[in-house]
């Protein structure tokens, strides 16, 4: 009784090797995809910072100062009022602090300011105009890797 081994197919070892190779390739692709999405989110954050910086430059051109943070205890700031108003382009998606769909939190911080600046941009008597600002974009995943623009 002799058996002919004319079997066709793959052995269990060959199948396991193929599965391991596919797993390694999938892991490499996953890491590359995450890197690409992180770069895209960072580019979007930089674009948003540039947009806010341009809005601040528009404010400066109109009022010869940057908007102050607003009255203490106020929930909205002069920056918020201006951005949401017709002069600032009726932009309700931007404010002093806002978060975008990619998880970046943006903060506008005026610097070199006196007491207050009215919501329309007029400087309150006895105060000085804001001379600068800083913009920051940070994520919960990487708060120390924040993007900062200072003027």
Explain what the structure shows.
The chain is an alpha+beta fold. It has one domain (12-150). Helix content is 39%, strand content 15%. Strands 1-2-3-4 form a 4-stranded antiparallel beta sheet, with helices on one face. A hairpin with a 7-residue loop joins strand 3 and strand 4 (147-150). It is rod-shaped, with a radius of gyration of 28 Å.
Shape, please?
rod-shaped
Cα-atom Rg, whole angstroms? 28 Å
Hey, roughly how much beta strand do the residues contain? Answer: 15-25%
Instruction: Summarize the main sheet.
Output: 4 strands, antiparallel
**Helix content range of the residues, please?**
25-40%
Q: Strands of the largest sheet, in order across it?
A: 1-2-3-4
What is the mean predicted local confidence, pLDDT? 74
Secondary-structure-derived class: alpha+beta
Count the E strands: 4
Distance between the termini: 92 Å
Q: How many domains is the backbone divided into?
A: 1
Number of helices: 2
Oligomeric form of this entry?
A: single chain
């Amino acid at each position: 009784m002799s058996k002919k081994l004319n079997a066709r197919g793959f052995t269990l070892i060959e199948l396991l090797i193929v599965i391991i190779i596919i797993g390694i390739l999938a892991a490499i692709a996953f890491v590359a995809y995450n890197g690409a999405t992180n770069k895209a989110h960072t580019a979007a954050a930089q674009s948003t910072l540039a947009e806010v910086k341009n809005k601040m430059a528009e404010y400066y051109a109109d009022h010869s100062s940057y908007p102050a943070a607003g009255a203490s205890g106020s929930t909205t700031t002069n920056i918020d009022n201006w951005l949401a108003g017709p002069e600032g382009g009726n932009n309700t998606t931007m404010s002093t602090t806002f978060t975008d769909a990619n998880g970046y939190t943006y903060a506008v911080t005026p610097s070199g300011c006196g007491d207050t600046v009215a919501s329309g941009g007029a400087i309150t008597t006895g105060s000085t105009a804001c001379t600068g600002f800083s913009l920051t974009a940070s994520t919960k995943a990487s708060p120390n890797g924040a993007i900062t623009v200072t003027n």
